[in-house]
Structures are given as C-alpha cells and as structure tokens.
Amino acid sequence: MAGNDHHPKHLETLDRDLGRVQMLELATAYVAKPVAGIGIAVVFVVFAALLATLLFGGSGHGVTIVIASVFGAYMALNIGANDVANNMGPAVGANALTMGGAIAIAAVFESAGALLAGGDVVSTIAKGIIAPSSMGSLDMFIWAMMAALLSSALWVNLATWIGAPVSTTHSVVGGVMGAGIAAAGFGAVGWSTMGLIAASWVISPLMGGLIAAGCLWFIKSRIIYREDKIAAARVWVPVLVGVMAGAFAAYLAMKGLKHLVKIDLKTALTLGLAMGVLIWLVMIPVVRRQSEGLENRNKSLKVLFGVPLIVSAALLSFAHGANDVANAVGPLAAIVEAARSGHFTDGFGIPFWVMLIGAVGISFGLFLFGPRLIRIVGSEITKLNPMRAYCVALSAAITVIVASWLGLPVSSTHIAVGAVFGVGFFREWDSERRLRKARMAMPERPRYSPEERRRRKLVRRAHFMTIAAAWIVTVPAAALLSMVIFWSIRAMVA
User: Which GO terms describe its biological process (predicted)?
Assistant: First the structure.
C-alpha cells in the first residue's frame, strides 16, 4: 500500500525531470541555432577557398586569389542576410508568403538572376569611382580591391547585426573609394560619380515612398472606400496587376536581362506596355472568378492581391540577383583578372565560378541570417497587408525605370525601404484626415491626448532613425574601414 502511495510521487518527479530535459533541449536548440548558422557559413567560406585553390593554387598569385575568394564568399553571405530582405519583407509581412516560402523563392530567383543574367563585363573599378591609372602598380590595385571587398562585407555585417537594411552597392562604392584614397590620394576619386551616388541617397527613398503612397491612395479611393468594394475590385485589380506586369517587364528588360541582350529604354517601355495590356486582359476573368462569393469587406480584398505579390517578390529577386551580385563580386573578379593577366586598366569579365560563389553565398546568407531583417522590413516598420505590400513592390519597379530614364544611380534597398516608409506615413496622414472629418461631423467625440496620439503612430520611429542613420554613414564608414584595411595589408606585405 505504501508503495502505491509513493507511486504517483515518483511519476510526478519523473514528469518534472522530463520537463527539465525538454526545456534543456529547447534551450540548447535556441543557443545552437546561431552557432549552427555560423558553422555552415564557415563551411561555405572554406569551400570557396578550396575552389579557388583548385583553380589557381599553382599560379603565382594563387594565395592572393584564395584570400580574395574568402572575402568574396563572406560578402555574398552578408548580401543574402541584409539586401534580400527588401524584396521578400513586404510579401512576408503581408502574410502572402511564409518565411520558409520567401527564403525558397528568393534563393532560386536570386541565383537564377545572378547566373543567367548577371554581369558579363563590369567597368574596371566599380563604375568610374577610381581612375585605374592612378593605382600605379598591380600589387597596389590588388590590395585596394581586397580592402574594398573586406570593408564592405564587414560594414554590411555590422548593419545586419544592428537591424538596418543598407545598400550593398553603396558599401562597395565606399570601400572602393576609401581604398583608392589610401592608395593614390583624393585626386584618384571620380567626384562627379560620387556626387550622383550621394544624390541617390535622398532621391531613391523619396521617389520610392512617394510612388508607393500614391499607389495606396489610388487603391483606397478607388476600391477600399467604395460602397461595393468587390465590384470596384473587379474593375481595378486587373488594371493594377497589368500595371505591375508592365512595370516589371520593362524593369527586367532593362536591368535583369541587359547582359544577355541590349535593350534601350524605349524598347523596354514598349515591351512593358504590351505585357501590361496582355496581363490586364488575362486578369479580368481571373479576378471575376476569384471574387465570386466574397463578402463586401476589406479582408476579402486581400485574396485578390496574394498571387501578384508572390510573383512580384520573385521578379524583384531575379532582378536583384542580376544586378547586385555583380556589384558585390566585382572587386573579386577584378582581383582574379588582374592576378591572372597582369593587367588592371582594361574592362574585365566575371568568371562563372566567381558568379557561382556570389549566387550560392547569397542563398546561404538569406537562409541562415535573413529572417531577422525580413521581419523588420515586412512587419516592424509599419503593418503591411497585401494591398500595401503590392504598392511597395510596384513602387520598386517603377522607381528604377524612372531613375534609369533620368540617368540617376539608385539603390534597390533604399527604394524598397523608402516605399515601406511611404506607405506607413501615408496611412498616418490618412487616418489623421479621417479623424478630423469625423470630429467635424461629431464635435462631441472625445479627443486623444498627445501621448495617445503618439502611441497611435503607424510608423515605428526608432526604426526610421536607425535606418536613416545607417544609410547616411554607409559610404564614409565603408571608406574609412577600407583605408585602415588597405594600410594594414600594405604594412604586412611591404
């Protein structure tokens, strides 16, 4: 009998012990996750070094190329962790895609963009930022490119750690500029190119924000605030999807496929117009079928924007892979070409294995370290639903087309994040406007206190300040880092 009395206590103790073991397992998994991520990243970097050793181990500059490959792989991982969040964040924040789905789509389309349409030829040193002739010697050029690659990777890594989406292109620009100044003085820098890049810091986010806000205003006035929302959606959603398809067709023709076939702006816009009209006609019966039986409320409208949003995220990733991977591995390609041929003042191609390191590294970086920034861009700056996220995606495509037409260098990161802020600030303005209208109609309504009004803001100000500060300091910070690294390399080698 006594044994039976103690039996439940033994079970209780066992349950408690099992509970402790389970908690320990969960804690270990939580702690091990970042460690495992870093471990996989290190394995990838080692793989890049082995690949370079296999290809160039016996050559005179073999060690240099292997070290540069390590830096290039590290840079690619950081692009995946930071830059890709801008394409995927809105679709994830709007619940059109799960985090896993977003990562899978981005990995496939970023790699496809890099490998199919990535840079064939990039100018000798990152788009005329530094005059190659000012470098003096081959070794000086290689050290400068090494410093540019490592400094930009370190800066993007730091930005990811603090939760700020920054432009990897601007980081590379800063790195190249800093190394050029350290190697050959201020006269080596093409200041007119730098002036245009500095202007794009302001123009990109403003343009992206204004276009996204305008798009959201259109959706609200033409669909959301209408008496019969579903009937309005049947008219306008096909038009909106057609506009998006046209914008992306023109965007991809100009940006994503420019290395496969040369297309001027006029031809790209004609292609875009044709694609837009075609998709508009296709979408009319599709939206009619999708909208059957939907209730006349805002929640029902989300269904109609889901698929266009997923497609736009995939297309943005493809275009990003085609453009930004080349920017990131450009310095690595420059080092390989210079070391292999002994020349550094001519244009150079990007070898397939270098693009492969870029494409695979981006996918790994996104998978291992990307979710944090995807969450920040998608849901922590302002609350996104499919309609708002659609405006962000459309704005990204249109802004790049307008900027190309005006001849302005713009950052896809700044455009996408600017568009998210534009949507958020427009929602704030719109809710204030509606509140004022309601108060005029019913003066007896209670007024909000200043604290309550601050609490009801629809854009998180802390993220706004962090991101703006990170954007402003990206080029100078990467440049300073690059100068220090260049001097360190010269001191070690000389």
Answer: phosphate ion transmembrane transport
